Amino acid sequence: MIALLLRDLQLAFRAGGGFGLGLAFFLIVTVMVPFSVGPNSTTLGTIAPGVLWLGALLACLLSLDRLLALDWEDGSLDLLATAPLPLEGVLAVKALAHWITTGLPLVLVAPVLGVLLNLAPAGFFWITLSLLIGTPALSMIGTFGAALTVGLRRGGLLLSLLVMPLYVPTLIFGAEVARRGAAGFATETPLLMLAGITAGTLAFMPFAAAAVLRVNLR
Amino acid sequence: MTLQITDLSLARGGVPVLAGLSFTLGPGRALILRGPNGVGKTTLLRTVAGLQPPLAGTITGAEDQIAYGGHSDGLKLGLTVTENLRFWAQIFGQRDFEPALEAFNLAELRDRPAGGLSAGQKRRLSLARLMVTRRPIWVLDEPTVSLDAASVQLFAASVEAHLAAGGSALMATHIDLGLDGDVLDLGPFKAKATAPVADGFDEVFL
Amino acid sequence: MSIWEYANPTKFLRTSARVMPMLWVASAVLIIGGLIWGFFFTPDDYRQGSTVKIIYLHVPSALMAINAWFMMLVASLIWVIRRHHVSALAAKAAAPVGIVMTLIALITGAIWGQPMWGTWWAWDPRLTSFLVLFLFYLGYVALWEAIDNPDTAADLTSILCLVGSVFAVLSRYAVNFWNQGLHQGASLSLDKEENVADIFAYPLWTCMAGFILLFIVLVLYRTGTEIRQRRIQALVARERLEA
């Protein structure tokens, strides 16, 4: 398991691994927002938590189709499925690797982008915390989506269509935490809901993802 | 470990291809599958490897005993030869991959990234992976593709060593490796349109 | 005699062919009757005027939009557990009907909302939930369309339906939490005081019964089509085997 995690990380950080693409995408989306809604800093400050959450979600989504497709193309996925590891574990580890290479950098860079969007000072802590709690769920749900579409032509677009509705609860509660935090309101309820969704997702989605991957491998 | 296949029926893409297939593969034995393209060799090998369920019949003695080698090499082009092998060794709970490097004449290439290897060298690396897994039953799909004559000899020697050590091998190949193995022609087991097939197939719609 | 007998496609086709004509007639009579009753023989609401009458389309379609998904969930479970082909095909057949019902509910809602709330659309929890439901339907249908092997497609869409149901419920709660909303309470329920008056309720019940029958007959009809399509595929496959 650890070997698999290390290999995935190694592959992501090597040349051509695509590390940083998601981060760059997040940056660009954030920069595009003022161009589209105007430079008024009050407006930007109001929408900043939502924009950061949406940007992080899209950046996460963008990198999903590489999550299993590469292993599928070169045959490693077949070999992993015959290896003495449970497929559920393989997928959980792959989701973890995806989170470390995509989700975690997004969490770390979000406060910096918050400055660009004139995020209220109280919001910096909450945007970081909510992304930190919410992004693992995005990676795990995305792994399910990737397993669902792994053998398909034009899988990328379909993957977005399938995964986005599943992201709705995480996005709502995550952005709610950030929004309330920035406005100085109480955040306990949405924060607990967000944490609950992430915990439930991490507990059950590996099984669903392994079930669909087995179907796709046969 | 003896691999036992009893009365196996297989489908590919929802269409039955093989029916009523039975054979036994004991330790130290090799079984070579023959048959025209599309007869179901790959489907049989994938089923034995546990990647897809059979339509009917049983496979015993395969659980956690199979080292599978398919059409693709399963290599990460960004990793070096050693890194690729070490990864699979770790996945299968092994440590030692030096003998495999030697057996397939890869020692000089050890620090080259797999992306820089020729097709034949990649194939050798992917066959070296089988040794690294230390699993007793090798299930191989066209293992000699893109190998030159010398590499085929290396491969044949490693299969012989594997058999001598009590392992066994089930492979689909068209060339003669000079192995002391049985040959199974799949042609006679081709599924007939009239043959009754077990539940879970399009037949229910007829 | 067990209910699972109808999992046999031939038996299913024979039985559904027998009941479908009755269902077509019954649903047409109920819907047309209910609409005429509702449109012409009930008074205008004292606040909402005659616009209230769109309720006879809006509520039944909203009811079926949700229940179509629920039926797909049950059918998917049956496929996953017992692997009856008809069940998987019934789930496939129900999805487009569910999409249309969701669209009708959304569109009639917008037409009703314009004069009442002064807006075609508001991000009210009920409206938003229906929009999210619509997205779930789209994904489900797109997945069916994308996969060539019908059994693989059945397996994958069933699991998507199961997972999607959990997330759809979560989304419903999330959306409720996120915005408190404009939408009036339930129009009909068994224990509440706030129900619409009886004079509106009877034609509404009639329309709802009609929509339920319409949904059932549409799903039976479409399942029959799917079965025939699979039968053609199986025949072609057999032909190829013999060649």
Automatic annotation (TrEMBL), chain A:
Gene Ontology CC: plasma membrane
Transmembrane segments: 12-37, 43-64, 96-117, 123-150, 157-178, 190-213
Subcellular locations according to the entry: Cell inner membrane
Predominant subcellular localization, coarse grouping: membrane
Membrane topology: Multi-pass membrane protein
Keyword line: Cell inner membrane, Cell membrane, Cytochrome c-type biogenesis, Membrane, Transmembrane, Transmembrane helix, Transport
Record carries keyword Membrane: yes
Single biological process term from Gene Ontology: cytochrome complex assembly
Function: Required for the export of heme to the periplasm for the biogenesis of c-type cytochromes.
Family, as annotated: Belongs to the CcmB/CycW/HelB family.
PANTHER family per the UniProt record, alphabetical: CYTOCHROME C BIOGENESIS B-RELATED, HEME EXPORTER PROTEIN B
Protein name: Heme exporter protein B
Taxonomic source organism: Tritonibacter multivorans
UniProtKB/TrEMBL annotation, chain B:
Keyword list, A-Z: ATP-binding, Cytochrome c-type biogenesis, Hydrolase, Membrane, Nucleotide-binding, Translocase, Transport
Protein name: Cytochrome c biogenesis ATP-binding export protein CcmA
GO molecular function, one term: ATP binding
Matches recorded under Gene3D superfamilies: P-loop containing nucleotide triphosphate hydrolases
Keyword Membrane: yes
PROSITE patterns: ABC_TRANSPORTER_1, ABC_TRANSPORTER_2
Domain ABC transporter: 3-205
PANTHER family registered for this protein in UniProt: ABC TRANSPORTER I FAMILY MEMBER 1
NCBIfam families assigned to the protein according to its UniProt record, in alphabetical order: ccmA
Name of the gene encoding the protein in the UniProt record: ccmA
InterPro entries referenced in this protein's UniProt entry, alphabetically: AAA+_ATPase, ABC_transporter-like_ATP-bd, ABC_transporter-like_CS, ABC_transptr_haem_export_CcmA, P-loop_NTPase
Name of the top EC class for this enzyme: hydrolase
Stored SMART domains: AAA (SM00382)
Protein origin, superkingdom: Bacteria
UniProtKB/TrEMBL annotation, chain C:
One Pfam family hit: Cytochrom_C_asm
Purpose: Required for the export of heme to the periplasm for the biogenesis of c-type cytochromes.
Residues passing through the membrane, by range: 21-42, 54-81, 93-115, 127-147, 159-179, 199-221
Source species taxonomy: Bacteria, Pseudomonadati, Pseudomonadota, Alphaproteobacteria, Rhodobacterales
Family label: Belongs to the CcmC/CycZ/HelC family.
Topology term for the membrane: Multi-pass membrane protein
Domain of life: Bacteria
Occurrences of domain Cytochrome c assembly protein (ranges): 13-183
Subcellular location: Cell inner membrane; Membrane
Keyword Cell inner membrane: yes
Name of the protein in its database record: Heme exporter protein C
Single GO MF annotation: heme binding
Main localization, broad class: membrane
Gene behind the chain: ccmC
Keywords for the protein's UniProt record, in alphabetical order: Cell inner membrane, Cell membrane, Cytochrome c-type biogenesis, Membrane, Transmembrane, Transmembrane helix, Transport
